[in-house]
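Q&A log
Question type: sequence-to-structure
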Amino acid sequence: MTDTLPRIGLLGVMQPLYDDMIPGITEHQAQYARRIAESLAGVADCVTSDPVRGREDAERAMRAFEDADLDGVMVVMLTYGPSLRVTRVFRELRLPVCLANIQPDPAVTPEWDMADMTYNQGIHGAQDTANAMVRAGVPFDVITEEWPSDAFRERAGRWARAARAATAWKRLKVGVFGYAMNGMGDARFDETALMRALGPEVAVIAPGALHRTVSELPDTEVDALMRWEDERFEIDQRLSKEERADHARMQLGIERLLTEHDCRAYSTHFDAIGEDGRFARLPMAAASNLMAKGYGFAGEGDVLAAAMVHAGHQLAGDGHFTEMYAMDYPTDSLLMSHMGEGNWRVARDDEPVRLIKRPLAIGNLDDPPTLLFRIRPGRATLASLVALGGERFRMVVAEGEVLDSQRLPALEMPYGQFRPDSGIRDCMDGWLRNGGTHHMVMNLGSVAADWKVFCELTGIEFVPV
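Response status: OK
Response body:
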């Protein structure tokens, strides 16, 4: 899902006041806008508008951006541009916004004439425009940098990825197979409030629909998936063909239903599957494979966590569903795992991912084929979405290190040990005080700054711990 770059519109704002004073200024500054777009190649695909010189220009450009299905809009002042030209546009805009407070030349020099002064006077247009967005209650990011620099590219890329994640959430549907786990309070929320505030919609899918879909799948599709797994994973020889075919049918059936319901994230609960009475085993390996294909996932009917894994894919690539299993004080780390679901794209490079025969009493069904791996050592980030009531949401985020840690032979599910930068004592104190949930997304790399921008664009409270 993150193989392509975010697609953003670059809106260059100026005014006709300077045309007589500096003939050709509009084309001169239009060329500057095109150079900015070219400088962002590699972090975003940019669509550049004609210079906006009035309200009609602004409205026309924004309609074109929205019709082009872009992820966000970056506003650049090509000269000073009065904010009332764009005030109404921002009030009605449906895309995330970034105000790039930049200018063509990085330094004021004695050689500047009035043309140079005019070309580089965007800062007070940025102030006027930012004031208008604040008054309108429009969330936006701001980047003040030298535009040809690596720092500008890095910050612009971070905003573009956050904009993609925020925009994707506005049209996200999360499929829930059956129902959510009884008694699991930190996953409870007001569905209408989530949709109003952030966008994700819940689609309940009956287990019976999954059973019918699984039964209708052709053997050729099942065989093709099993051959692909033979090439990709180390296969436990204890697994029978029947067990593997049953798992493959579950995966293919889930994906077919997600496609039919236009869902890019989902959750299954073991009781909803086990109590149905028509399934032989839980779809553990299916969840791992579908996460690796870019679907958001969470266990136990947890819509918030599934939406977070989806956002993690869009924001930083390869979101991994997990939870904190236990604390390890000697290494100042947390054992991260879950019942058997995990995105194998975060696995160590020096060990094969194994598809194993794995006994599991939960659900009271037959052994579910499970993908087993250890998480790749290196920098990593955890993020949890907290429903605070009404349309208030909080994100609790921790950065740290996945350790090159011990093997745990009895743990037949994806795992790793995460050492927070703040240490487990301070991290867990902060996590618990802020209501951090027990399901979360992990991304490899230090991406707390990315989540912060995402929160700024969506109105979520951001709390690092």
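Response note: The chain has two domains: 7-168, 173-464.
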